[in-house]
Structure formats: C-alpha cells, structure tokens
Amino acid sequence: MKKQLLFTVFFIVAFCSFAQNDSISNILEEVIVDGKRKVIKERVGSKSIKIDEKHIVKNPINLTNLLRYNSPIAFRDYGNGGVSTARFRGTSASNTLVLWNGIPINAIGSGQTDFNALSASISDNIIVQSGGNSAEFGSGAIGGTVQLNDEINFKKHNKFHLFSSYGSFNTTSNFFKSSFGDKKWSVKLASTINYSDNDYIFIDNRYKDQNENLLKNENGTYKNYGVNFNVAHKFSSKSTLAFYTTGYYGNRLFSDGLPNPSAGSERNEDFNQRNLLQWKYNYSSQFKQLINIAYLTQEYRYYDNKSASDYSFGKSKTTHLNYSLTYKPTNIISFNYKTIFENIEGTNSEITTKKRNSVSFIGSVKYKPFEKLLTNLQVRKELNSDFKVPVSVFLGSEYKVSSKFTILSNFSTNYRVPTYNESYWPIVGNLNLLPENSLQGEIGISYKNKNLVLKSTAFYIHTNDKILWLPAGNSNSWVPKNVSDVINKGVESFISYQKKIGEHIINISSNYTFTKATNKETTKILPYAPSHLLNYTVNYKYKKASIFLQGLYQGKTYTNETNLNFYSLKPVNVQNIGMTYNLSTKKTKLPTIGLTVNNIFNKVYYFSNLRPMPGANFNININYKF
User: Fold this and answer.
1) Which segments of 511-578 does DSSP mark as H helices, in order?
2) Strand, helix or coil at 410?
3) Can you list the residues of the chain whose pLDDT is less than 70?
4) Sign of dihedral through CA atoms 483, 427, 318, 356?
5) What's the Cα-to-Cα distance from 423 to each of 81, 108, 469, rounded to whole Å?
6) pLDDT (tens digit per residue) in 11-65
7) Long-range contacts made by residues 360-363, C-beta under 8 angstroms, separation at least 24?
8) Of 369, 371, 365, nearest to 406 (Cα)?
9) Residue 428 gets which letter from DSSP?
10) Is 470 left (phi over 0), alpha (psi -120 to 50) or beta?
C-alpha cells in the first residue's frame, strides 16, 4: 500500500513542478461542451461529466473499464468478458439508466445493462449524469444515467480515425471512425472488433491446483463486433432529417471462477440492433419541434454447454415514438412539451410473449428571473398498461455567485417499474409488485476558471417499495418482493486541472464518491455499494511524447445483506501507466504509438467474490487520426 501511494504522489509532484516556471499560458478543455460540433445541454442544477476519444484510447478494452477509471460509478463484474453491472450512488443495477441518443436501452427482462456488452468506442461521446432523471427519461433513472451519443456535423470536413491495440492474453481492441460532410450533409461510419483468449493467471496464492501451480481463468474467451452508421441532411435552415443505426454481436464463454475455474463450460451470445429516425423543424426562432421514431431489438442466447446446439433465450422488440415542442418567447423563459409512446414485446424460454404499452406526458419550464439565477421545473405523468406509475417531478436551480462560482441544487421524484422477470417468471414471478419510487435531493457547487474545473454535490435518495429477490420461506426459491425503504446518501466530486507551460502540458482529473447505502429497517449496508470510490488520471505531455498514470481505489465492499466480513471484498488499490509518441513530421501526418501497463504492482483484487481480476498486463497500440 505504501509503495503504491508513494509512487502516485511522486508522479504528481514531479510533473506539477513544471507549473512553477515562467511564461505561463493556460489551456482548459470543456467538460461538457464540444465547441466544434454542438453543445450538450447540462441538466439544470445537476452534475455531469463528458467522456470522449481521449479517454477511450486509455481504456479500450470495454465500457466497464472506461467508466471505472473516468466516472463516479462503481461496478460489480465478473472480469473482462463477464457480466458487468453498475452501482451508481450505491443504487442497484436496475437504477442506472443507459440511453443511446436519448432512447433507453436497458434490458426489459432484468431492467439492467451489461456494460461489457456495449460498444462504447463507436459513440462520439458519453455523458455520465448523476442523480435522478425520471421526469425526463422515465423508469430506472434513479441513481443516474449513462448517455451514448452520436454527433451530426454540418461543417465541411473529412475525417478518419483508426485505433488498434494488442496485448496480454491475446487481447486485441480495435475501432475505426470515418466521417465527412458539408453544409447540407453529414455522414459517419464506425466499427469495432474486440477479441481475447482472456486466459490470465489467478495470482491469488490461496488457490492452487494439486501440483501447487496457480490457477488460470479457463473458458473465458470473448469476441464482439459493433457497427455504427448515421446520415443527416439539412433541407433548409429550418428542417433537418437524420437517421442513426447501430448493431452489436457478442460471443463469450463464462468462466466458473474459483476454486475450480476449469469447470466452466457456459457460452452466451448477444444480438442488439437499434434504429432511430429524427426530424427537427424550426417553425421560427421561438417554436421548434423534434420527432424521434426508434425501433430496437435485443436478444441473448445462453448455452449450458458451449458445444451444445440447444440454448435458452430472451428477446425483445421496442417501438419508441417521441414528439417534442419547444417555445421560447424570450431569453428569460422557455417551455417544452413532450409526448412519448412506447410499445414493448418481450419473451424468453420461461415466459411467453408479453406486451407492455405506455404513454408519457411531460411538461417543462425553464425560467431565469434575474441574471444570476436559472431554474427548471419538469413534470411527467406516465400511463402504463401494467402499473400505476407515480407522477415524477424535477426542480433544479443554478445560482451564479460570480463568473466562476455557481451553486447547484435539485429535487426530484423518480421511479422504476417492475421488470418482466420480476413480474412473469414462472412460479416465482410477482404480479402484485409496486413500482419503486424515490425522493431525492442534492446541493453542490461548480467552480471554473482557465485552469480548473471543480464540481461537488451532496446527495440524499430515499427509495420506497424497493424490489429485491429474497428467499421464499424454507424453499430454495427466491422471489421478488417490495421491501423496506432504502436510503442512499453521500458526496460526489469531480476535479480537472490543466496547465501549459511552454511545450509542457499537464492534466489531472479525478472523481471521488462517498456513499452510505443502507436498508432502513436492518440498518445494514447494501451489497456491492462501496463507501469510498476514487479514480484519477495524471497526464503529462511534452512535444510529441506523453505519459499518463491512472489509479483506482475502492473501499471495502459487502456482498450480502447481512454484511458478513468473511464474504466482503477487500479494498482495491490499482494503478495503470502508459506512454505514447506521435510519429508525425511537419510535412506528414503519421500515427501515434503507445504502450500501457495495467495493474503495474501486480495486485490481487476482486470486484465480485471468487472472480479475481488480471495481474500485471500490457498492451501496445497505434492511434491514427487524419
């Protein structure tokens, strides 16, 4: 522990020392604004961060690693290629809503998202928004949202980006993006291919085979492919039509973990297809409308034996229609009205086809009573064919104390309707479940100057009718039930600092979250909700060369409702280091080559019981943009 801490401190202090030189000029990248293309609107009174290509190339393996080192979200996962689910502000996996270009994509069976089965590298940016947002996005937006966004660019451009890495365990991660456009057209094509034998050694010395050799992660191979295409045409200054489509295929084997990883024989396939047609029309500078029509399909196939042809399955089809009308009579006040219709059909090996329809009506007002204060009130009412859904309200405010310092606050009510599995699973499904509903509030600060961005918020979430799977009497069955209230409270902070001194550039960014997530009745900490979560990246660049250090600390984590120490996960303290060099000359644009070493101190660590993560490992990469 001391060795890792001293190394980290030395790295930061050594490079910060450049900040003491003369002739200082300042550079600061925006956290949310992408000035070349468009402004991504922040929710009033809320905390958001943006993740883009410069983060992806440091953590290219999967979306879990990308968010783990660059966001305030904790994850429970079974290793690279295994299932990975989010714990945002200590809430359950089904309380983090994932959106693709504004369309919810959580699985209808479980209500969750497997972050190892999403292609993040082909999205243009990822917005991580903390806190409840059901008034805007509906069911499941309680802990926060993760938004995968594609951008339209009507400036004249012709761009190409290729990234490829190869490293330990025969792991390769690759993506390319190509885009071109002018004042009337915008076109983008992107694709990703990832593969790994994933056969790393379990470096936990407590587990060895009969010959006293360390065990290996057997049956862990994975491969996945993704493609993304969008095209948009601007008919006039008033009318724009855009089409987005993306597809994903994943094929992975599931290791059996400790103490007998060789027993693993399972296999899983994922097929996802998403399509979105979007029409924007500006009647005038005051009236604007937006129509979204989306059609999404999801399917998984699970094989008990990887060599078998028989499988269990789950699949769904979702139709999503969204009409939005905005009226902004002055710069002081604006109104927005939305109607959203959603039709879902889902089935699996255990559940016959079930349909669920919903219609939501959303009204929103943004009001700026005076120069320093911005407020936002939003109300949503959903009519659901299966459940009585509570009204959702969001009230946010931002008070600008000075040009650099802002006070943020918001209050919201949010909900999650029961999933298909919770409602319809044979024998144990519960048709009498009530939707979860939460009451939450937060207050915080935002500070920005030429060098520094700081955001910090204190939050409180009180969830009623929490749905948990619990043992059914004396049987071995587990059934979903509405249980006692759950309270999540804590503090979440983000800091980014960047400075340029001559040809030296240093950038430091970090997320820290303190969370206390408890069952109100038992006063026990909720499973997989670590109290402390810290990640950071320190990047130093000089001319064509750069070096970065990443770190992750996750506090002790309980894995069951009784908080038994024996089954808890020990604190995680892991560091990665990488370096890159740009081969370009003044006349020729050439690739950047890089080397990354993960878990440089070869630490034993877990994010789920009996599923150790890889020891020290490396990848070499090439990054070419023109």
Assistant:
1) none
2) strand
3) 1-42, 473-475
4) negative
5) 29, 11, 12
6) 443 434 333 443 333 333 333 333 334 444 568 999 999 998 889 999 988 999 9
7) 360/138, 362/135, 362/136, 362/336, 362/337, 362/338, 363/335, 363/336, 363/337, 363/338
8) 371
9) T
10) beta
